[in-house]
């Protein structure tokens, strides 16, 4: 009887013998193109499950903390504390931070930097304006 899909006669003694023949080195399985080399055992012609599992566990460990660094559900949910009279939490800024995926901690850093850097710049601009005013320009 011939298997029509494979074109092989399953009753042929040569077919049965070939099925149990050892795989020659030249016939060894080649690494599939979608399997990275570090996950392929070329000697055995098979996946290196240990390397694959190790890599997966490491990836989970790195991404596991992602939820903690996710942005809040809404821009209004940022809890910003500002230590400057010149800087305050701003909903429009928070909307942009939220759209960019900033976490609570990242958004706080933006406000902290603004509170640190803006007052000296504002004082300098005010000083220059006052000097120009006194000179009559």
SSE layout and pairings?
Layout: E1 2-3, E2 8-9, H1 13-19, E3 40-41, E4 46-47, H2 49-64, H3 91-99, H4 104-135
Antiparallel strand pairs: 1-2, 3-4
Describe this structure in words.
This protein is mainly alpha-helical and 137 residues long. The protein has helices spanning 13-19, 49-64, 91-99, 104-135; strands spanning 2-3, 8-9, 40-41, 46-47. Strands 1-2 form a two-stranded antiparallel sheet. Strand 1 (2-3) and strand 2 (8-9) form a beta hairpin. The longest helix has 32 residues, at 104-135. It is elongated and about 85 Å long.
Q: Could you describe the largest sheet, including whether it forms a barrel?
A: 2 strands, antiparallel
Number of helices: 4
The unreliable regions are 1-6
Strand composition percent: 5-15%
How many DSSP-defined strands?
4
Inertia-based shape: elongated
Please trace the helix and strand order, writing H or E for each element: EEHEEHHH
Task: Indicate the percent of residues in helices.
Answer: 40-55%
| Sheet with most strands: strand arrangement | 1-2
Gyration radius, rounded = 33 Å
Q: Tell me, rounded to a whole number, the average pLDDT.
A: 80
Gist of the model:
Helix content is 47%, strand content 6%. With 137 residues, the protein is mostly helical.
Keywords:
137 residues; mainly alpha; two-stranded antiparallel ribbon; 4 helices; 6% strand; elongated; disordered N terminus
